[in-house]
Design a protein that fits this description.
heterodimer, A: three-stranded antiparallel sheet, three-stranded antiparallel sheet, 11 strands, globular, B: mainly alpha
Amino acid sequence: MISVKKGKRILTIILGMLLVGIMLVSVGCSGDGEKTPGEVEKPKLVFADAGWDSMCFHNDVAKLIIENGYGYETEITPGTTMVTFEGLKRGDIDIYMETWTDNINTYQEALEKEDIKEIAINYSDDRQGFYVPTYVIKGDLERGIEPLAPDLKTIEDLPTYWEIFRDPEDKTKGRIYGAIPGWSVDEIMSEKVKNYGLDETYNLFRPGSETALSTSLMKAVKEGEPWVGYYWEPSWIVGKYDMTYIEEPVYDEMKWNDGYVCTIPSVKITVCVSNEMFNKAPDVVEFLKKYQTSSLLTSEALMYMHDNDVDTLEAAKWFLRENKDLWTKWVPEDVVTKVEEAIK
Amino acid sequence: MSTFPEYINFKFGIYVETFVEWLLDHYMGFFEGIGDGVLWFLLKTDSFLQWLPWWALVALVFFLGWKYKKLSAGILYAVLLTSIGVFGLWELTMSTLSIVLTAVIISLLIGLPVGIWMAYNARVELIIKPILDAMQTMPSFVYLIPAMMFFGLGMVPAVFATLVYALPPVIRLTDLGIQSVSKEMVEAAHSFGSSSWQTLFKVQLPQALPTIMTGINQTTMMALSMVVICSMIGVKGLGYEVLAGISRVEIARAFDAGLSIVILAIIIDRISQGVANKYKIPEQ
């Protein structure tokens, strides 16, 4: 009996020591990530993530450069456009990498009141409008898809082809997908459908969310079915699938004011920072002032992200590796070396 | 900060994705068939409700409220329903109602048999219960995307998503209702020579009816609570009004539509509760 008791005690001691050992080891591990003493504490910079892919991507590009090259810590705050933009005005958010100036109705006011500072134009060659997958026009020999609408070129050709875009919920008309509620382009697109007279042959279908819009297109492409609807560049969809923009009359202020019956003008997409940024991190402001990409570059990166099933951070690393000529002009030499080290 | 060891790494979602892709490649026709059937039913219900004169529905609600509750309740429900029309949301309410109705009817078609089966077979119950839990707690966008891949955008995937969320109560309460019929009563039925089917239809189901009616009531309420989610995949109706209202910060628009959903819920809830109470067997 005594031996059993002793055995139990020894077992308890061994288990106890093991536990203490594990705790010590794990504490040791977590200590590794801490900063070496003596380094100057730099403020944390906060990015806004308003919820779409291209913005996340630009956030990560800037984040890689700022964290590795300038040594600031960063943080990303998610939210809707309105919420994050308010945050920028209040100074809760420091950097807004992709400001779709026309889509924020308080933008001009905020600039005039100097609540925020616009420091660079990220890109301004974006495009919004109605798109079809190119196989609808040209067909796809490899997949055995017939060109269903060979002469579809401009918005005036759409009524001729309504039958191929037939709406499953109302077979007497075609279905044209509209924009997402809450984006100011939603109203523009629905006015367009009315003013081009498309509503005689088409039902405007409002997809309700970005996910729904992209899923409907993906489903159509997967099955080789015709699809027509609103999309925009840059986006991973236009980067990944071969999409054709349906032409509209050239932009003209008269036509625009008369019910948007012309091409949607490009939106200026800017980089904005809070006023505090100038004190907090003047070196980063200098870098961001030079930040400039293009719609095409952004689309390519988003396509890379989607094709390889990686996150925006990986896509940002890939972008920095691929476009060295571009970004090395934005930052001083020493930063270039540090960033290159980090993205290897 | 403690971290979970990185070498213990297994991801489950990728298998689900592969499975969905496989289904899409091989059984698309099957899903299209189901989708077409549901869509046909939906469109018929919708066009019936749109055709139905508004006063006929108001009168029906008044009559049901009067019969199953009391006169004042009937008047109140009729006034509430009329006020939806006054907000200018009648047509949208009818399309919302047609989705809710379709979802509820399919829920009953699936839910009642499954509930009965669960009550009879302990092993089935063991398997289905966790599935029901998962259906109710899984965030809806997770299964909305596969639903859209299978059924396209619009009302059909919306009905599917509503089903996933609204089906569990009717199954659970059918199961509970039948199981709580007293053993003595079932034995008595058997000893008088009734077959299993007779026992089920003439003793167990009538006894369980109040519980089952509560289940149906819960299912309808849950179906109504899904309308805003459904609008995110392109369903017209009250849900879309709420969605558009909140995303454009139009408080007034969102509130009118939200209030209409509440009114619809109150009317359906009170009337179906009234019906359930009528069937309640008086306590001895």
